[in-house]
Design brief:
globular; about 15% helix; five-stranded antiparallel sheet
Length: about 100
């Protein structure tokens, strides 16, 4: 599966709030921006999501929300949503939409 888009937020409504609007990803991607623009943070979010999906031990579940869209090898779309707060999963959903061209 390939990651095609990602939305992320953490600590919504709190002073340390950080929101990543939907980013669209292609076959190859290049993140460009000024210092402190969030390039490394985006990579850390993707890495954290990958570790969670792989079942690797992640130190804690901060107040964060993921919405990731993937495409499988058969072109089916997969939507994964994860919301957690205070080390508790509040919402987790996986939706698979069949390939548009069966």
């Amino acid at each position: 599966m390939k990651l095609r888009s990602l939305k992320y937020s953490e600590f919504e409504g709190e002073p340390q709030q950080w929101i990543l609007e939907e980013i669209l990803l292609g076959e190859s991607n290049l993140l460009v921006g000024k210092n402190s623009a969030g390039k490394s943070r985006i990579l850390n979010v993707i890495s954290s999501l990958a570790n969670r999906l792989a079942g690797k031990n992640v130190s804690s579940l901060s107040a964060s929300n993921y919405q990731a869209k993937f495409v499988r090898n058969d072109n089916a779309e997969v939507l994964y949503e994860l919301k957690h707060h205070e080390n508790q999963v509040d919402h987790e959903m996986l939706t698979i939409n069949p390939s548009p061209n069966p």
